[in-house]
Amino acid sequence: MKLGRIAVSGPDGDVARLVLVLPEEERVIDLKRASVLALEKQGATGESARRLSEALFPGSMSAAIGLGERFLDAARRAEKERPDEASIPIGDVKWLPASDPSVVRDGLTFIGHIKGFHEKIGHKPHESLLKVPGYFKGTPHTVIGHDAEVPWPGYIQHMDYELELGYVIGRRGGNLRPEQARPYLFGITVFNDFSARDRQSIEMPIQMGPTKCKDFAYGVGPWITTIDEFADLDAISMEVRVNGETWGKGTSANKLWSVDELIAWASLGEVLEPGDVIGSGTMGGGSALELDRKLQPGDVVELEVGGVGILRNRMGQPQSGLWWPEERTPFM
Questions:
Q1: Sign for the pseudo-dihedral over CA of 226, 229, 234, 237
Q2: What are the Cα distances from residue 167, in Å, to 105, 164, 179, 259, 288?
Q3: How is domain 104-319 classified at the CATH fold level?
Q4: Which superkingdom (predicted)?
Q5: pLDDT of 126-136, one tens digit each?
């Protein structure tokens, strides 16, 4: 099952709606509208039908996932009935980020990218990569969806994409072991960790993690495919295209740390929440840095993941007039 979020125009502006995505039929089903119709057919009043449907299908994907099987059962009923009255042509949809996570986590698990990235920056991979599954935390407030324009802060000169899977968490949990982790995985989306390579080279030696080189935009979409549709999480096809030209192609195989280990590690000493997104890390050859290339304003980046779909974003124009700190004199 494929589930997404769209913006629907209302009297007070756009509101978020959850949809069942039917790419083969080139349409989506507004889940709240489908629920209202079904309840009214069963004798519910319009007001009561809308109240219950809003609870089952809020605008927040994270809140809906938090309902557990009740949400999935209601979505499955809509998938079975597929009411035309609740359909919207897929070409008319304004997409929102597939999930609205409480925090963004992004891992580093693909051996090919670890090697390729470090070769380009002229450093050997640190031995700590062999000790724990590395990841960083990013802000959830700059997550963008399919077909959204990517903000380009003017302090960035070397812009890059990163082709990743997005692991969407389905249950609240903490201190998990790898063998306990899989039931906490709700589904998979496409994740683009947009990166400012010139700023990254300045920030990372501070040893506080990435900030302005990452937090300007994270692409999540176009929708989520539930985990039951994937037979093998290490055999998912992945491809990136820029302006229609293939720049990278591979699979989800050859990882240093498994999906279950990454989820378990992220849960240690803290709590995972429904709807949280954990990036898999970049596929080997899944960044322009590994190709000695970089993005330009106006470029269209398409990340395609087998079993999910295509996350497409156009790079915006650099924003001028932004403040940047002046370098300080040495204090040592």
A1: negative
A2: 10, 9, 16, 8, 22
A3: Fumarylacetoacetate hydrolase; domain 2 (3.90.850)
A4: Bacteria
A5: 899 999 999 99
